Amino acid sequence: MKIFEPIKINQLEIANRMMVSAMVTNFCNEDGYASEKFIAYHEHKAQGGFGLICTEDYAISPTAGGFKRLPGLWEDAQIESHKKLTDRVHAAGSKIFCQIYHAGRQTTSAINGVQCVAPSPIPDPTMGEIPHELTVDEIHELVKQFGETALRAKKAGFDGVAVLHETDADL
Description:
Elements: E1 7-9, E2 12-14, E3 19-20, H1 36-47, E4 52-59, H2 79-91, E5 95-102, H3 109-112, E6 117-118, E7 132-133, H4 136-155, E8 160-165
Parallel strand pairs: 3-4, 4-5, 5-8, 6-7
Antiparallel strand pairs: 1-2
């Protein structure tokens, strides 16, 4: 069975073809730092033999999340706690990707303290809040934040990055 055979993604060799997809746990601290519970959760997946783990949504800014206890890499100080995560997952034999994200219209000011944003002022059907329509300058700022978060993910030891932006449905 090929499921137990190694596979390569570009230059990255993964021990097998079993992957844990991103699942929101809300196990991090509200400041985006990795908690012991968050680290142990992913470490147990690695110990279970999964070749690749893709984390849940890593917020690109303090106001980008759709939940209060998401991981974040919007500032350099957060790198160390997430480096502990990648070190422990690697020690257990798995590779780990960081899913970086912005909730877009799929959040509310009650969750992140600011009006949600999107390419258009069309509310998410489940959240109901009318988003602020992004300006060109704000779009450039989001792009910059995604890039900076990806760099921090690399510094934290992640093997790859998956990019997710919840407003894609508006485009």
